[in-house]
From TrEMBL:
GO terms for molecular function: ATP binding; metal ion binding; transferase activity. One of its GO terms (cellular component) is cytoplasm. Keywords: ATP-binding, Cytoplasm, Magnesium, Metal-binding, Nucleotide-binding, Transferase, tRNA processing. It comes from the Bacteria. This is tRNA threonylcarbamoyladenosine biosynthesis protein TsaE. It is found in: Cytoplasm. GO terms for biological process: tRNA threonylcarbamoyladenosine modification. Belongs to the TsaE family. The keyword Zinc-finger does not apply. Its main location: cytoplasm. Coiled coil: none annotated.
Amino acid sequence: MQYSCKLSLSNELDTQKLAQKLAQHIAEGVIYLIGDLGAGKTTLSRYWLQSLGHKGAVKSPTYTLVEPYNIAGKDIFHFDLYRLNDPYELELMGIRDYLDVAHALFLFEWPSKGGEEIPQADHVIDIQKTDDEMVREVTISSISAELITALQDFNHSDC
């Protein structure tokens, strides 16, 4: 990753605003969402999908491993690898079929569990809890200078 930015999310509205900004600047590619249980990875994903135009519920793919979406003709795959015991399970579930979809957006929660079965990230979003239960510290690493520039005006950013 060539570019990075650190920012602070003070509340859920900040998470929604970040998702809107990400949706404006990332149309395709591989996104890694990193953070402990309860850090806000799925919440960010939900707001991101809604910002792209998804109507209705956004289910956590914790048990299904993947939830596919097609929003305005755009394929988006939201993976949650938390319950994965072995990266090879992804091969057995047919991950190649998903990864072969051209110009898709891939959101991977718990990417460390995917091993070599998942591609390298274009963007990494690391969400960390703080002592204040509501506040999250976020580090975004990206191949996109445009994205990092767009985040410079975000609350409490260091880009």
